[in-house]
Amino acid sequence: MNEGPQPEGQNTDPRTILVGVLSSAQSAVIPAAFVMFGSGGLGLVVALPVFAGIIAVGTLFSYIGWKRLTYTIGTQDIRVESGVISRSARSVPYERIQDVSLEQKLLPRLLGLVSVKFETGAGGGEDLSLSYLTEERGEELRQLVREMREEDASSPDRQQGEAAAKPAVETADALFTMGPQRLLTFGLFEFSLAVFAVLAGLLQYADSFIDFEIWDLDVWRGWVDRYGIDFAALDASLQLLGAIAGLAGLLVIGSLTGMVRVFAREWGFLLERTPRGFRRRRGLFTRTDVVMPAHRVQGVKIDTGFIRYRFGWHGLSFISLAQDMGASNHVVAPFARMDEIEPIVDAAGFHLPAPDIEWHRASNRYLVDSSFGDAFFFLIGAAAAFVSTTIYAPEWTALATGIPLVLAGLAAIANALSWSRQRHALDATQIMAMKGVLSPRSQIATRLKLHSVEISQGPVARLRGYATLHLGQAVGEFSIPGVPIERAREVRRKVLETIAATDFSRLESQQAT
After folding, report:
1. Closest CA to 81 of 267, 362, 27, 72
2. 117 and 99 in contact (C-beta within 8 Å)?
3. Which among 333, 361, 349, 396 has a CA at the least distance from the CA of 487?
4. Signed CA dihedral, 205, 207, 210, 212: sign only
5. Helix 194-203 and helix 236-266: axis angle, to 10°?
6. Distance separating alpha carbons of residues 482 and 463, to the nearest angstrom
7. Which of 5, 39, 151, 178 has the CB geometry, 3.0–4.6 Å to 46, for a possible disulfide?
8. Residues contacting residue 13 through CB under 8 Å, at least 6 positions apart
9. Is there a cis peptide before residue 71, judged by omega within 30 degrees of 0?
């Protein structure tokens, strides 16, 4: 709790009320539409009062919520008080705040407001947030909290005026950006049929709005007969052209949907290296501004897709203690070439595998066991089909038995291909793992930042002499299956030697400076 005088509590920006009003109006559209179409001849006479009532209630609650929400910047902590009927106050010391991120949804962004989120490391509802402040005040508050966190909390000569001083603007070096042309290319690889799912959901309620039975086949058949369309009489070439046109339309709509998603999520993408870490900004409708302190980056992931891999495109993510929309996985280069990814990885204190690094594959016994495990259920199905068809339908025995056997073979082949690309390596500072055939994925972790190394063996693995390595990180998961037991023990020994040889008290003091 604070020991010194505190400045007066401040409300968030009064434009918060307007955001609440607009949000209420947006939420009132669908209920008002249902009332209008479901009230027969009354229509707007009933819908307008409902619409106005929802907005009025939303406005009232927005005003009361704004009036009762105050925050105080103290000498040792930040305090937020809220609540209408029951009042609550939460105080978070600066040393418990890992970082501060800014987020702008569409309506607040149009009004120049931001939501400020204080990352405490607890995750979920334990984080503290303020909605909404002006953009200038949000950025100022973020820099202020960082400075207060780094200062000595027990300093007796800290003055209240220091808390109100505006911090100097930090310099930043751009590491990765994506302009409209890159987003357009990215969107071409983000094929999505989500629009059809939305349309299908809306059609479920279409009968309530229009006097037309959409799901009645007789209605459609009568419509075709009325206009004299005989699909069976069409030339085969016309039928083929129609099928091609339908498929082309599907591809166009899927591509446009993916492109819209990419532009909405990644617009203005900018990754910068600042003295405090990595700063990433992106978003067209919802603008996010996240900072990842460099010393909190636990590892990196490089992934790709089946098609984009053939064109040399990859994605890079950081595994970080700072939260990004509730997750520890931060996308820092969603669509980049490897020559663009490499300097980002280097800036985070990692490095890509050297060309001459020694890779180790999973155990051959693990390949046999996992292949059999994948094919086991198909083999059981083939046996059951053989017994049942031999008794009741001998003419179908070959087909009913052959299909599961073919699937079992395909599963075994897929497992063998996956095993051929599943490998790991250990160098002086890092441990790396790769997997995936059609869309390779790799993960890199610093040996120094691993918390533990666990060797896990089930009954079969213990009998067959291999294990799964679980590398303990503060966030995320890093597991390497099928490692020969001798190799697993060697990796554990080397990682533990690295951790034991490090003075973490010194390391933390160096990182703090």
Report:
1. 72
2. no
3. 361
4. positive
5. 100
6. 13
7. 39
8. 113, 132, 133, 134, 137
9. no
Within 165-277, where are the H helices?
180-188, 194-203, 217-226, 236-266
Q: Which of 351, 510, 375 is nearest to 444 (CA)?
A: 351
Structure tokens, 215: 């799901």
pTM tops 0.85: no
Question: Residue 287 belongs to what H/E stretch?
Answer: strand 287-292
Write the burial class of residue 203 (CB in 10 Å: 0-12 exposed, 13-18 middle, 19+ buried): exposed
Q: 3-state class of 197 per DSSP?
A: helix
Amino acid at the residue 406: V
DSSP H helices in 422-484: 459-464
pLDDT tens-place values along the chain, 513 residues long: 444 444 456 778 788 888 777 777 777 777 776 666 666 555 666 677 777 888 888 788 878 888 888 888 888 888 888 877 777 788 888 877 877 888 888 888 888 888 888 877 655 455 688 888 888 888 888 888 877 766 644 444 444 444 444 444 567 889 999 999 999 999 988 877 665 566 566 555 555 555 555 556 666 666 666 665 555 555 667 667 777 887 887 788 888 888 888 999 999 999 999 887 899 999 988 888 888 888 888 899 999 988 899 999 999 999 876 655 555 568 999 999 999 999 999 999 999 999 899 999 999 999 999 888 888 888 898 899 888 888 888 888 888 899 999 999 998 888 888 888 899 999 989 999 999 888 899 999 998 888 889 999 999 999 999 999 999 887 778 899 999 999 999 999 999 888 877 655 555 544 544
Q: Which two tokens stand for residue 403?
A: 């299909």
